[in-house]
Amino acid sequence: MNLNEIQDLIKFVSKSGVSEVEIERKDFKIIIKAEKAKAEQIIVQASAPQVQAAPAPVAAAPAAPAAPAPAASEDSKLITIKSPMIGTFYRSSSPDKDAFVQVGDNVQKGSPVCIIEAMKLFNEIESEVSGKIVKVLVDDATPVEYDQPLFLVDPS
């Protein structure tokens, strides 16, 4: 089971109202619980010792990762690119490289805008909309939550 499948399973649990999902295979076991306090707990058991992730808030998730949503700002034309996962936000692929996007840059749908590191995996996040970057909402190398706004994009 890869990281995307686990994230999809977490989204399913948060959307469906199911209180618990358990999957067991010969090399791992995963249990995802949604508690009444609206928190998720992920327990992964492999041949190595048990790993437990910190509880994460359950939020109404968009249908697709990094899906744009209308921004809650004075200009309702702006679209928000949100984090599809919990992790550490990076604006560039390495410290000595330029940022993927800067304020004022035009982005195309499918072009990389940042990287989010989760469980030692670096996930390139692509824009779901074409437009101009108006604002970067997160500082480089800071933790981000699932569904947290990352960029404001003007699609016009």
Describe it.
This protein is mainly β. It has two domains: about 5-55, no CATH class; about 70-155, RNA polymerase II/Efflux pump adaptor protein, barrel-sandwich hybrid domain (OB fold (Dihydrolipoamide Acetyltransferase, E2P)). The protein is about 10% helix and about 40% strand. The protein is built from one helix and 14 strands; from the N terminus they run αββββββββββββββ. Strands 1, 2, 3, 4 and 5 form a five-stranded antiparallel beta sheet that branches. Strand 6 and strand 7 form a beta hairpin. It is globular and about 50 Å long. About 25% of the residues are buried.
Descriptors:
9% helix; 156 residues; five-stranded antiparallel β-sheet; OB fold (Dihydrolipoamide Acetyltransferase, E2P); single chain; 2 domains; mainly beta; 1 helix
List the helices and strands and how they pair.
Blueprint: H1 3-16, E1 20-24, E2 28-34, E3 39-46, E4 51-52, E5 56-57, E6 69-70, E7 79-82, E8 87-90, E9 106-107, E10 112-118, E11 121-126, E12 131-136, E13 142-144, E14 149-154
Antiparallel strand pairs: 1-2, 2-3, 3-4, 3-5, 6-7, 7-14, 8-10, 8-13, 9-12, 10-11, 12-14
In short:
By secondary structure, this protein is mainly beta.
Portion of residues in beta strands equals 35-45%
Structural class: mainly beta
Can you tell me the CATH superfamily of the largest domain? Answer: RNA polymerase II/Efflux pump adaptor protein, barrel-sandwich hybrid domain
Q: Ranges with pLDDT <50 over ≥5 residues?
A: 37-41, 45-54, 56-73
Which sequence of SSEs, written as H and E, runs from N to C?
HEEEEEEEEEEEEEE
* Coarse shape: globular
